Amino acid sequence: MEKRNELYRGKAKTVFTTDDPNYLVLEFRDDTSAFDGERIEQLARKGMVNNKFNHFIMEKLAAAGIPTQMEKLISDNACLVKKLDMIPVECVVRNFAAGSLVRRLGVEEGQSLVPPTFELFLKNDALHDPMVNESHAITFGWATAEQLAEMKRLTFAVNDVLKPLFDQAGMLLVDYKLEFGLFQGEIILGDEFSPDGCRLWDKETRTKLDKDRFRQGLGGVVEAYEEVARRLGVPM
């Protein structure tokens, strides 16, 4: 399949059209951003690691019956995906307290959340991705009640697959965000699942192995991503 024109350039990925209107090329760059793009750096190998990591995770989810947009890897930094009509609402599951939840509610970082929490955020950089609820999403036409219910079901299904996968590799899946879209009328998991969009801690030491290393200036960002990939057995 032939890659053609640039369709969209995000903070860390670029999307290209192909000669098939139903498919796109998703290219992972080495750009790393935080605070809604206020801080951007180039980190060598990051695009390659995230691309292969994302493909590995999406294959695990597909094997568990979760529909994803992933088709195949086509290079170290790119993959072929279905073209989705994206829903502008992110789904977030939290298994442990961290990040904005700690700041908003004043709870202790690392507190186990039983049951896990589920939150919705509007994808809008200018507004810093504000937290919203189902009523907002329905009223403003971002998603239907039926779509939201399926997104929530799939988000927790992802948790059922990935939480034990990371646990067996000596890591805690602290929290993660997912994006969904429509393909031929079906709700499909889109975008990516990588250490850029989730929090992962070492189970014993609570060492951070995700993008918080960049946000908090801890260093060793790509090395941490590679360590996660190594523990999971992601082919590099």
TrEMBL record:
EC number per UniProt: 6.3.2.6
InterPro entries assigned: SAICAR_synt/ADE2_N, SAICAR_synt_PurC, SAICAR_synth, SAICAR_synthetase, SAICAR_synthetase_CS
Keyword annotations from UniProtKB, A to Z: ATP-binding, Ligase, Nucleotide-binding, Purine biosynthesis
Domain of life: Bacteria
EC category name: ligase
GO cellular component: cytosol
Annotated pathway: Purine metabolism; IMP biosynthesis via de novo pathway; 5-amino-1-(5-phospho-D-ribosyl)imidazole-4-carboxamide from 5-amino-1-(5-phospho-D-ribosyl)imidazole-4-carboxylate: step 1/2
Molecular-function annotations in GO: ATP binding; phosphoribosylaminoimidazolesuccinocarboxamide synthase activity
SAICAR synthetase/ADE2 N-terminal domain: residues covered: 7-231
Pfam families to which the protein is assigned, alphabetical: SAICAR_synt
Recorded catalytic activity of this chain's protein: 5-amino-1-(5-phospho-D-ribosyl)imidazole-4-carboxylate + L-aspartate + ATP = (2S)-2-[5-amino-1-(5-phospho-beta-D-ribosyl)imidazole-4-carboxamido]succinate + ADP + phosphate + 2 H(+)
Gene3D superfamilies documented for this protein: ATP-grasp fold, B domain, Phosphorylase Kinase, domain 1
GO terms classed as biological process: 'de novo' IMP biosynthetic process; cobalamin biosynthetic process
SUPFAM superfamilies in the cross-refs: SAICAR synthase-like
Annotated family: Belongs to the SAICAR synthetase family.
The protein's name: Phosphoribosylaminoimidazole-succinocarboxamide synthase
Gene: purC
